[in-house]
């Protein structure tokens, strides 16, 4: 159970980080459509990651957990699109980007939150 708590803290950190990135994007000024969509999504997903799922009643927990699953999967696709757009922009400038380590770490932390939320709510499934 202690490992689940640490993984949940990582999810809370990810949520705060995403909200901070979105705020930085909004305060930077001119943004294209993709950055606006990405920033709004970061705020929505960041807020969901900071909800205490263990305290919710069963009927509400099922809905919030389904939203967590859906938003986590969509987050992966958003990160893939972000990396693809960055690679295309770099190619237009004649540059090459390295391995997308930051985005990969964000994807790992996001996908980790789904089983963590499930096992915190139903610890008997760990055995």
User: Averaged pLDDT, please?
Assistant: 88
With helices defined by DSSP (H or I, 4 residues minimum), what is the helix count?
A: 4
Number of strands: 0
Give the topology string: H per helix, E per strand: HHHH
Beta fraction of the residues? under 5%
The percentage helix is over 70%
Radius of gyration: 16 Å
Low-confidence stretches: none
> Span between N and C termini?
12 Å
Largest sheet: none
Structural class: mainly alpha
The geometry reads as elongated
Q: Which oligomeric state applies?
A: single chain
List the helices and strands and how they pair.
Blueprint (H helix, E strand, L loop, with lengths): L1 H26 L5 H17 L8 H35 L8 H21 L6
Tag the structure with descriptive keywords:
4 helices; mainly alpha; elongated; 127 residues
What can you see in these coordinates?
The protein has four helices and no strands. With 127 residues, it is mostly helical. It is elongated and about 55 Å long. The termini are close together.
